């Protein structure tokens, strides 16, 4: 299957940005955008560092998930261990660091599962989701405040959990469904 590609010069063009808010977690800029046909408009752009997440699979075909509360949408849900990569940090190392800090389990040799752009109409946020079947338990998580519960959930349960709203995070949902599909094809 082939997908249509825009011809060069026919998409929206960013003619420059001015900072509005700058924090360690994000930058909000106002962009001067030229649309096809030379019409121009102002558009807010949220610049965010890369997000990394890791799906850890055990020998019983279970994935390690965190039961978390997200105060901004005021919702609870299962999520993969995840976080922001530091500037200039290797993404695989960042994914391993975040998983260890949030779960106490250190991934060994994680591999890229997929990369997504969860909010491409507003932000340049990119989430890199890794997976591994090799893990070492190092003890209680350093960031134990991140999750109410840490549990191993059967991979086979993933589609139903996503469908009934137990997984609210777009990145976790995409990663878990890709992982489930990958595992189902192997069976």
What does this structure look like?
The chain has 187 residues and is an alpha+beta fold. The protein folds into two domains: 13-47; 51-186, Nucleoside Triphosphate Pyrophosphohydrolase (Alpha-Beta Complex). 19% of the residues lie in helices and 39% in strands. The protein contains three helices and twelve strands, in the order βββββββαβββββαα. The strands form four sheets. Strands 7-4-10-9 form a four-stranded mixed β-sheet. A three-stranded antiparallel β-sheet has the order 1-2-3, with no helix packed on it. It is globular. The model has no long low-confidence stretch (mean pLDDT 93).
Structural class: alpha+beta
Distance between the termini: 25 Å
**Average of per-residue pLDDT values:** 93
CATH uppermost class of the largest domain = Alpha Beta
General shape: globular
CATH architecture of the largest domain: Alpha-Beta Complex
- CATH domain fold name of the largest domain: Nucleoside Triphosphate Pyrophosphohydrolase
Give the helix level as a range of percent.
Answer: 10-25%
CATH superfamily of the largest domain: Nucleoside Triphosphate Pyrophosphohydrolase
**How do the strands line up in the largest sheet?**
7-4-10-9
Q: β content, as a range?
A: 35-45%
Tally of strands: 12
- In sequence order, what are the helices and strands, one letter per element? EEEEEEEHEEEEEHH
Q: What summary fits the major beta sheet?
A: 4 strands, mixed
Q: What is the number of domains?
A: 2
The rounded Rg comes to 19 Å
| Individual helix count | 3
Outline the low-pLDDT stretches. none
């Amino acid at each position: 299957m082939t997908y249509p590609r825009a011809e060069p010069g026919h998409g929206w063009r960013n003619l420059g940005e001015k900072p509005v808010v700058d924090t360690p977690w994000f930058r909000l800029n106002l962009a001067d955008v030229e649309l096809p046909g030379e019409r121009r408009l102002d558009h807010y752009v949220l610049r965010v560092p890369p997000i990394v997440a890791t799906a850890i699979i055990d020998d019983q075909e279970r994935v390690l998930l965190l039961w978390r509360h997200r105060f901004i949408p005021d919702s609870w849900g299962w999520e993969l261990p995840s976080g922001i990569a530091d500037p200039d940090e290797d993404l695989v190392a960042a994914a391993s660091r975040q998983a260890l800090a949030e779960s106490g389990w250190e991934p060994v040799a994680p591999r890229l599962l997929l990369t997504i752009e969860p909010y491409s109409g507003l932000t340049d946020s990119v989430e890199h989701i890794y997976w591994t079947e090799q893990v070492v338990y190092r003890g209680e998580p350093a960031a134990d405040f991140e999750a109410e519960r840490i549990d191993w959930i059967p991979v086979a349960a993933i589609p139903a959990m996503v469908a009934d709203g137990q997984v609210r995070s777009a990145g976790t949902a995409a990663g878990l469904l890709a992982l489930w599909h990958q595992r189902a094809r192997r069976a």
